Amino acid sequence: MTAGRGSVTLVGGGPGDPDLLTVAAVRALGEADVVLFDRLAPHQALAELAPGAALIDVGKRPGHHPIPQQEIERLLVAHAQAGARVVRLKGGDPFVFGRGGEEAEACRRAGIPVRVVPGVTSAIAVPGAAGIPVTHREVSRLFTVVSGHAPLSDAELEHLAGLGGTIVILMGVSNLPSITAGLQRFGMAATIPVAVVERGFAAAQRTTFAELATARAVAERAGVVSPAVVVIGEVVRLARDGDVEASAALAGAGAVLDDGRAR
Ligand code: SAH
């Protein structure tokens, strides 16, 4: 433990593969006294990356209750007040549906110095790992990242349906039926391609393709489960229909990341 004043560093851990940690993330972990980590953060490598740290699992696990958000914030502050360099390791980027803002605020309120290390977000990287670029020249020039954790309102569905770009949904598996039905209700074409990419960057990564009208049934039949990123939009065709040039370029990019497991 440090003699000086404690601090908190919110670290984006990327989508799960330790190779996708930033240099700043690796450095912060290497210097940490305490690491509080989530289920989707690259925690398997923590013993190696944070050899001097006490490791605290605050993530949700099936059958176990997650540690409530307030308790996580209390732990961050308490360890920092005791003088520790605390790393809060989160999946993806800390500020994309990660409650990073709340944790930073809690630290500031307690007078704890807090720093944020951005991370590779699954919203962009997981579609990319499946060969789906979220934007592509003359196909899509915008993408919207939506949380599917709670049902979308009619106003949200109407605007999303009217935007015409790529829709990326995180935490969207359980609400997929209501989202796809809602988008069709507000005029999105039934034939718009949909991809569900499960367990991005893991050996068991899988992509399931469908169209807006069939997504519900196809996902059910395939037994799609969380964590998964849902992509709705014409860019999905680039992976599905084998746009040779684009998918070759993208597969090449993936191969640089993980030699044996190129997808
Ligand atoms: N802050 C994170 C997102 C947290 S919300 C980020 O920037 O990536 C958690 C959701 O992210 C999951 O339900 C899933 O939709 C998505 N997700 C994160 N990692 C993933 C992965 N490796 N494969 C597929 N989906 C992932």
Tell me what the structure shows.
Residues 254-263 have low confidence and may be disordered. The termini are far apart. This protein has 2 domains: 7-117, Tetrapyrrole methylase, N-terminal domain (Cobalt-precorrin-4 Transmethylase, domain 1), CATH 3.40.1010.10; 122-253, Methyltransferase, Cobalt-precorrin-4 Transmethylase, Domain 2 (2-Layer Sandwich). The chain is of the alpha/beta class. The longest helix is centred in the C-terminal third of the chain and has 14 residues, at 244-257. The protein has 10 helices and 10 strands. The structure holds S-adenosyl-L-homocysteine. Residues 15-16, 40, 90-93, 96-98, 121-123, 126, 170-171, 199-201, 226-229 line the site of S-adenosyl-L-homocysteine (SAH).
Bound ligands, named by name, code or SMILES: S-adenosyl-L-homocysteine
CATH-defined superfamily of the largest domain: Tetrapyrrole methylase, C-terminal domain
Main beta-sheet strand count, sense and barrel state: 5 strands, parallel
Tell me roughly what share of residues is in helical segments.
25-40%
**Which stretches of 5+ consecutive residues score pLDDT under 50?**
254-263
Strand order of the largest sheet: 3-2-4-1-5
Arithmetic mean of pLDDT: 91
Cα distance spanning the termini: 42 Å
Secondary-structure element order, N to C: EHEHEHEHEHEHEHEEHEHH
Number of domains as seen in the coordinates: 2
CATH topology of the largest domain: Methyltransferase, Cobalt-precorrin-4 Transmethylase, Domain 2
Shape, per Cα inertia axes: elongated
